[in-house]
Structure formats: structure tokens, C-alpha cells
Amino acid sequence: MKHRSLVLGLATWLLPTACAAIAGESDVPGSLDAGLEDSSIASDSSGSGRDAGTDSSTSTGDSGSSGADSASGPDGAAGFTMSAPANLLLQQGASAPVTVTVTRSGGFSDAIAVTVSGLPAGAMANPLTITNGSNSGPLTIVVGSTTPQSLSHLSIDGVAANGTISASTTMDLVVRGPPGSIDSNFGNQGIVSGFLTTTNFGTFDAAAIDASGNVLIVIDSQLGGGQVLVVRIRPDGTLDPTFGSAGIATVPNTGVHFDAVFPLSTGDIELCGLSEAGSPWTDEYIRLTATGAIDTSYSPDGGIGNTILRTDGQPYVFTMDPTERVVETGFTGNAQGFLLSRRTAAGAADPTFDAGFESTVGGPGGATLIQPDGMIVATYASRNPPYGMGLVRTDTSGHLDPTFGTGGIVPGTGPGNPSGLVLESDGKLLTGGLVFTSGGSAMPGGFVARYLANGTLDITYGTAGSTTITAGNVWAIATQSDDALLSVGYPWPVGDAGAPTNDLWLERVTAGGLPDPAFGDAGIVTTTVGGAGEISIGEFVAVQSDGRIVVVTATMKTQGVYDFSVERYWP
């Protein structure tokens, strides 16, 4: 497993397309996703169901035939067409009405009996008759508590005039599970796994979700000379056969540890990291085409950039702005100083960026984000007691923002050591990470804290500004559209009496900073990914455009042997 020092690396991005792929819906909290990625299916905020989308295509009424092309009855004088919402999302055990609309023609005014076919097991539709002269009626779909999570293509049929005039339309019904339930339609019983097992201490490097909902995972395999593997998993949980070899692209051994992967607007994929071969260490970049091949047009040395931005430090957090410039955050000196730099989209050091304040920050940089206004916010971990978290905010040129904290810096007295940083919809900052003792040793559990837009700790959040994550150390966080926060990480303390299990955990905290009682078990969902005695570590969490939650997991089977998997949950 990748070495985790006092500061954990985190890759973030702010591409317009990538952000569209992870901007969250709060929706119904906590169940493992039904694995039905469809941009036309919107999540239901109440759990009972809703019409999501425009009307589906309509079919016309005709004598004794459903879906005929004529809009008239048997004598060509009377008939009707039907329409309904394109789709409906219902949680197991819920019901909801959808409006069925008829358009009458040729003076047709008879009552129309409406029925539904194609419903999944345990679901039903209440009888509906659209009365004489009416143009619509509510069709109630009822889903049983045991109805399987599924996508069903329904036919909604209307019959009138003693069966001599009929019409039909279609609607998709998505049945989702309750909070914490696993989706048998995504991967294998809700988990995509088995695509790679590493030996010799192969590690998870980075992950992202692209604009199409594909999950990209970068793994330092340590196989065959240490090549890096990039895996692309489609929204239905299958490996993408158009990418690399059966969904896995191989990057030759370059001595690079990649910390970030960015889907680009061109369809290319950019990997950013640090070369640990030779001295000085250098920033390294590589681009793959949309099919997983090395993009040799990116630089003259076979697609691998070699841009030396610093000779006295190490960047390990990479953040991309909307113009595809990369901001690098890390440490200088003997892992004590703060590093902040930027390179252009073409790969060169950006001469317009000058973070000359670095020596005034009391610790190495960490999780970083770029606000919609272009301001850059970075965390740092204080190297002095109480070994807390601090924040820095600069303008787009790298100059400290005087309206933030004290002269642009929030002192390192925060509740822990940061591993994630996200922005709420109102401009407040949420961060999460590890908790340390006064002596600098990590403690069980993790923390989440919120800061106001001016850098002041928000004392209305949780308890005096922060809340404890009880499931384990926080290694990655994401926020939903209602500003609830999701966290994953290491299930520590492992094996202690009364401690959480070694299973993958996902914890949700409400917008007020409290464990969400509607999410799993008192705010925590656990998923068994590995076998007995194996430790499953949540490495990455993100929220898709439809609100569904994606987690990437590394499971330590034995010392130095890891399996990797993807899980997807309902929000």
C-alpha cells in the first residue's frame, strides 16, 4: 500500500466536464447503487418516486391495434394518442403516480381503460380509467418491498370503444434499493472486482470519473518491471473493451508515482506524478488517448513530460483548473516547508504564477481545490504542536488573499491532518482527515471540519466546528448537492475490541455536521469486499452527476498482495 506520511496525497480536478460527472445529488441516502447509469434517470429526493424526463414517444390509437400509425378509429373519424413521462424512479416499497396524457382526434370522447405490462416481480399498477372527455389521468405504480432492483421497459396501453380503438406508449421504471442495499445489477452483486491483483506491494495511485460516467483507476502494479496500469470501467460495471487491452492500458515503467488522473476536454487522459528516479526529482506527466494509447504528440520523449518545477521539494497533490493548468502542492526542504506551483496546459512552468510566500507557511501542503472564481485553497499540516491543520488561499497568480484568515493564511491549529478538501455550495470549505496526538501520532478515527469563506472555523458545524468520523481514518471525501459530506478510508483500529470491522466503510455527515441517521446504520454503510482477515481500504469517493456514489477500494489480502474494486451506492 502506498506509504502514507503525516500528509496524505489527494488528487482533485476542476474540469467543466469532470465536475459535471461528480457534482452530487443528495437524494435518498445510503444504499448501494442499482448500477443503472442513465443520464435520463434522475434520483428521487423522497424515495417514493418521481417523473424524471420529458414525455416519451407516443403511439396512436387505431382499430384493435396498439401502437398503430393512424390517429383515428375504424372509420378514420375518431381516435387518440398517448404519452407518459420517459422514466420513473422508485425505491423498493414505494409508490408514485405518473400522469398519462391522451390527445383525442376526430371527435373521439369515450372513456379509455389504461393498463401496464412489463412490470417487474412484486410491482403493480393501480387501475386507471381516463373518463369521457378527459385528457389525462394519474397512473399509480406500486413497487413491493421485495421487488428486485432493476430497469424495466414498460408498455402503457389504452383501450376504448369496446376494444376497437387502442393506443400505447412506453416508460422506463427504475427500482432502487433502500439505504445501504447492494445492487445485483452492477458488476457482481454490486461490486466490480477481479480485474487486477498486484503483488510486490503494488499500490492504488489515483482515480477519477469522466464526463461519460466511466471510472478511471491508476494502479502502480509493480508487475513486469513496475508498469502503471490505467483501468477504465463503464457505467454498467464492465471493463471498457475500447480502452487499452480489454479495458486496461499499460504505461511502461518510468520510475514515476502518479498521484492524479484527469479526463481532458479532448478525450485524452492526463496522468500527473513525481519521478523518483535519479536526482533531482522531477514532475512527470503523460497523456493517453481516449483509447488508452500513449499520446506521442504531447511531448518529444514518447508522451512522457519531464518538467522540473522544483529541485528542493516534492509535489504530491495535483489539481486541474478549467483551462487545464495543473496546480501542484507538496513540500519543500526536509518535508517541512510548503510548496505551491503551477504549470501551463502545454506542460511548462507557468511564469505568471508566483507563490513567494511559501516560507511563511508552517508545514507541507496537502489537499487543494480551485474555487469557481479561480482562487486556490490549499491545506497544510503544521509541523509544530498541536500538529493541526491550516489553510492557505491565493489568487490566480499565487498571491495570498488578504481577506482570508490572517493575510491569506489560517494557522495550523485545526482538528487534524488533512487528506481532503471540498467546497460547499455556499462557499464554505469542508475538510477531513486524520486525528493526531499532541506527540504527532495518528489516533483511531478521523475528523471533518468546516470553515467559513473567510477562513474562520464554523462553530455551528458539528461540535464547535468539527465532527468525529468513527468508522476509521479519513483518506478521501466528497460532498453532495445538499452539502452532506461523504468519507472513506482505512478501517482503523483494525481488530481492536469494539472497533469497526475490516470491511469497506462509507460514512455520511449531514450538512449540519452530524452523522446522518438515514444513511446506513447511524450514518455508516459497510460492505464486505475481501475475505476473512483481509482489510478493505476506501481510497477514493466521488459523486456522479445523477447523485450516485462511487468508491474505489484496495483490499490487502496478505502483506504486499492487493485486490482492487469499485462499488457504487445510492445517495
What's the helix and strand layout?
Layout: E1 12-13, H1 16-22, E2 50-51, E3 59-62, E4 65-68, E5 79-83, E6 87-91, E7 95-105, E8 112-117, E9 123-125, E10 128-130, E11 136-143, E12 150-160, E13 165-176, E14 191-198, E15 203-209, E16 215-220, E17 228-233, E18 248-251, E19 256-263, E20 269-275, E21 282-288, E22 304-307, E23 313-320, E24 326-332, E25 337-343, E26 365-370, E27 376-381, E28 389-394, E29 409-410, E30 417-423, E31 429-436, E32 442-451, E33 466-469, E34 473-479, E35 485-490, E36 504-509, E37 524-527, E38 535-543, E39 549-558, E40 561-569
Parallel strand pairs: 1-23, 6-13
Antiparallel strand pairs: 2-6, 3-4, 3-5, 5-7, 7-11, 8-10, 8-12, 9-11, 12-13, 14-40, 15-16, 16-17, 17-18, 19-20, 20-21, 21-22, 23-24, 24-25, 26-27, 27-28, 28-29, 30-31, 31-32, 32-33, 34-35, 35-36, 36-37, 38-39, 39-40
Task: Tag the structure with descriptive keywords.
571 residues, mainly beta, Immunoglobulin-like, 6-stranded mixed beta sheet, 6-stranded antiparallel beta sheet, 40 strands, disordered N terminus
